[in-house]
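pinging the channel bc i need a second pair of eyes. not urgent but kinda urgent?? the chain im working w is below, pasted from the shared doc
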Amino acid sequence: MTIDSVLIGDETLTAECGAQILARGHAIAAVVTDNARVVDWATGTGLNVLAPGAGLAARLAGLQADWLFNVAGLRMLGRDVLALPAQGAINFHDGPLPRHAGLNAPVWALLAGEPRHGIAWHIMEDGVDTGDVLVRADFDITPEDTALTLNTKCFSAGLDSFARVLDMLEAGQLDRQPQDMTARSVHARADRPALGGQIDPRQTMADITRLVRAMDHGPYWNPLTTPKMRLGDMVASIGHAERADDTGTPGTVLEVTDD
């Protein structure tokens, strides 16, 4: 079965999944993005590129699409946009639904001390990440994982599992798994760690190192906050934390080195 689709998203994963769609002989009527790298891929492939945001439904009107794929698109899509594809809309979520719905799921999983994380491909409905799940992929969180490494695991799992989504659509048989909404948690764009990321020395080492790792996005934009400690009149940004060999009362400076 050949699929006509609309692809929405602003990350490398958007283009990678788009390439899978085209490689299977399916059509992409339009790519909705304002990410320069995704624009370059789409135009280089000869695809129509549309701007996201207000008025999107009008810009998509008249295009033929069986399915809409929202792959790393962080804007809420209106009901008028979701109603356009004949069969429905599918979203990639970088967290295990329903446990971590909303934004920055890898960060909140690290802060919660979760032993495992995962991704989900799900049907889009009204609300944030509320539709039936089609495909899940779970993996372990290691003691060394940061926001950067966990996001990388999500990217890899999403890319590998998208083929299973396409298999379902081509066969016309969706394995819809309703979410247990009693186990649902939602993370909003404005949510921040406790104390705005300020470290209280009386916290446990596990809590402190989790916070530092959860805010470590490597060279990429950090959308939340920076771990920090108040040292007298100065506030120091903390980029890395590990347990010291010495002991002392919480808050005591054990050593100061040239670096």
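so The mean pLDDT is 94. and Residues 66 and 86 are 5 Å apart (CA to CA). — does that match what u expected or am i reading it wrong
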